[in-house]
Design a protein that fits this description.
Helix content: 10-25%
Radius of gyration: 17 Å
Distance between the termini: 29 Å
Strand order of the largest sheet: 1-5-7-6-8
Number of strands: 9
Oligomer: single chain
Shape: elongated
Amino acid sequence: MKEFRSRTDKFFLVKVLVERVQEDGLAKKVVERYAINAIDWAEAQHRTTAYMVGVDMEITDIRPATFSEIIFSDETTEKWFIAKLDFVTMSDSGKEKKTPHSILVPADTLDQASKNIETLMQTSMQDYTKIKVEESDILEVIEVTD
């Protein structure tokens, strides 16, 4: 059975312009997007630069991520998906209240990402509805532990 762990933190999306050798053997500049935990833009820039030491690259954009949680799996996957959920609670007056929550989840396919979310949420006592799951353009998550 897959093992998952969750990290809730402040995340930034960092776009990096880097030269990569393509399948045809030619070098081409490409934009890669990374997710990184950091307290501010400066720290996100510093951590990305430290992670990519020795690589000729240029950071072209840093912005706060729209997700608030990242799920890590013990299985190696090639893609990251963003799952948008509504957490459902009842107010004191008895009305249903929905709170949006976005999670970055690893998977190789859209179907696998949905199943990973369902597996993860089975361990939660939180009621939820799944709004949508979509593939992200994030190449890698740079997790820094202090």
